[in-house]
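Task 17 of the worksheet. Students: predict the tertiary structure of the chain below and write it out as structure tokens. Keep your answer in the requested format; marks are given for formatting as well as content.
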Amino acid sequence: SLDLMRFHADTKLVTEIGEWNDSSSLKIFNTSLISSPDPGTPHLMVVTREEPPYVMVKCGNCTGNQRYQGFAIDLLAAISQVAEFTYSIYAVPDNLYGVYDHQT
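Model answer:
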């Protein structure tokens, strides 16, 4: 299973807001922690890094979600239509997958 987490930039804390697994799909536990441009429609912030063929930068001058293409981007778009959520994609600043945090 995968945990769906929300990063709070102001406090640097991470809160679990849901999970996904192949048997029960996506479950969101705490919808109040998901910002929404439209009432009732969750809006997710999706962090990624360039990793062809899954995520590729379409053009350097493009902005927002239109900047990215690839298998994972197409999959995200399809899932968002079925699960009825909107999303914004942004690149992780250091282009890394993550690092081990010895404190957690």
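Marker's comment: The chain has one helix and seven strands. Helices lie at 71-83.
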